[in-house]
Specification:
The protein has helices at residues 13-32, 37-44, 52-75, 77-96, 101-129, 132-163, 167-170, 172-186, 200-219, 229-251, 265-295, 300-328, 330-353, 357-372, 375-384, 388-421, 429-457. The protein is mainly alpha-helical. The chain folds into three domains: 1-186, MFS general substrate transporter like domains (Growth Hormone, Chain: A, Up-down Bundle); 200-253, no CATH class; 257-471, MFS general substrate transporter like domains (Growth Hormone, Chain: A), CATH 1.20.1250.20.
């Protein structure tokens, strides 16, 4: 087989299709539900509880990523991703039959547990079967799924809501079956069989500590005040368990999250950049649509398509990033990408003063192009610095960092916007919202600048000129 034959034309093509389908499960799910929430609430009730449809999904997805990633380095990628697809499919089926809002929220947690395996395993498997030179184009294919989903998801959500919101979840079943069948038939692994000691204590402590911390971050300022007994108790307990987790990991034979990896400069800096990616993404996707709809009076479809330029620019740049890092190195590519992200954030901040769809859309496209030159190359750099036995953990740690960035970003942006809108009446709400979004964009800009700092701190690397080089 010609290893230089990238993408769908090689024997690896069916596996790549399966990876794109599995990624599509998570990508579409992140956008399809939002447009159907009013319909779901009308049928099931529980308006005050519906944010948990997103929060609990995010929580279970985030806490399970490091555990699945460690298991993938122990058992192999194939069984882990198949377990993830099965859990996601089961959760989707149960969600489709949900009889109440609490039941739907609980079944969304099952979906999240599946997504925690599906998303990092897709990226890890791509890192296994493609060379360093090939991965940029392949990551571009996978990233393009998010761009397509940003348009298809809300559209499908609106269509299904017309006759039954339950099909939002049922539509996942055939996709799960297709992805599982392709991976079962086409993905072959040669796993070294040896006895492993699974770090059950570390996994339990990580799950408990991160669950409490994300819960405190998500609900602080919403369900309870930041400085309150529930907030301090939840965050305090999470921090204590996190310290215990760090102690346990130092002594574990096969830790679920090897702390020694984070002592490597490349892995630490790429993880820091991934945190920034999570913050910037959640900041823009959470507030740009509401801003456009409130200030310009555009429809949800128009605002969604404007924001979609961000996820369209991402795969375009990601697919071409290989040409840059092969010639100039990963550090140069990350620096270029983070600088472009900052330029895009500045443009968004300027556009927020006198907004128009074209100005905001153009700025989102610039941010997306910068993200494509930042997120994919830094992930590939991290993957390329380790062998097969650590690639799953390294990939999971990178994506876990992005999830934590999103969770923290939700809290920070929410606190900023809520502070700006507190006590504002209906007559002055659009003006106050414009100020609130401006303040949130300033915070996003600060994080983007810190991403440049992290990129500068990456170790200098030599350009990769050998297209056949593997990690």
């Amino acid at each position: 087989m010609d290893r230089a034959d990238v993408g769908f034309r090689s024997e690896r093509g069916p596996v790549l299709v399966a990876l794109m389908v599995t990624t599509g499960l998570v990508a579409i799910d992140s956008t399809i539900l939002a447009t159907a929430v009013p319909t779901i609430v009308r049928e099931l009730g529980g308006f005050s509880s519906f944010p948990w449809l997103f929060s609990l999904y995010l929580l279970t997805q985030a806490v399970s990523v490091p555990i699945y990633s460690k298991l993938a380095d122990t058992w192999g990628r194939k069984p882990v991703v198949l377990i993830g697809i099965a859990l996601f499919g089961l959760g989707s089926l149960l969600c489709g039959f949900a009889w109440s809002m609490p039941a739907l929220i609980a079944f969304r947690a099952v979906q999240g547990l599946g997504a925690g395996a599906v998303q990092p395993m897709a990226v890890t498997i791509a890192g296994d079967i493609y060379t360093v030179a090939e991965r940029a184009k392949v990551q571009g294919y996978i990233a393009s799924v998010w761009g397509i989903s940003s348009v298809v998801g809300p559209t499908l959500g609106g269509v299904f809501s017309l006759f039954s919101w339950r099909w939002i979840f049922f539509v996942n079943i055939p996709l799960c079956l297709l992805a599982a069948w392709l991976l079962w038939r086409r993905l072959h692994e040669d796993i070294e069989r040896r006895e492993h000691r699974i770090d059950w204590a570390g996994g339990a402590l990580l799950t408990a500590s991160v669950s409490l911390l994300i819960l405190g971050i998500l609900e602080g300022g919403n369900e309870w005040a930041w400085v309150s007994v529930p907030s301090l108790a939840v965050l305090g307990a999470g921090l204590v368990l996190l310290v215990v987790f760090l102690v346990v990991e130092q002594r574990a034979d096969e830790p679920v999250l090897p702390l020694r990896l984070l002592s490597r400069r490349l892995l630490a800096t790429t993880a820091a950049i991934s945190v920034g990616v999570g913050v910037v993404l959640i900041g823009l996707t959470s507030y740009i649509p509401s801003f456009l709809e409130a200030i310009l009076g555009v429809s949800p479809l128009q605002s969604g398509l404007t924001l979609a330029l961000l996820t369209i620019g991402w795969p375009i740049a990601a697919s071409q990033s290989g040409r840059i890092y092969l010639r100039h190195g990963f550090r140069f590519t990350a620096l270029l990408g983070t600088v472009i992200v900052v330029v895009g954030c500045v443009a968004l901040l300027v556009a927020a003063q006198d907004p128009s769809l074209w100005a905001v859309g153009g700025a989102c496209l610039v941010v997306g192009l910068g993200m494509g030159l930042t997120a994919s190359p830094t992930l590939i750099a991290a993957q390329s610095s380790v062998d097969w036995g650590e690639r799953g953990v390294v990939t999971g740690a990178n994506m876990f960092a992005r999830s934590m960035g999103s969770a923290v970003g939700v809290a920070v942006m929410g606190a900023i916007v809520n502070a700006a809108l507190r006590g504002v009446d209906g007559d002055t709400h659009p003006a106050a919202l414009q100020v609130a979004v401006r303040d949130a964009l300033v915070a996003v800009l600060v994080v983007a600048v810190l991403m440049i700092v992290a990129a500068v701190a990456m170790p200098r690397d030599r350009p990769t000129t050998d297209a056949a080089r593997t990690a």
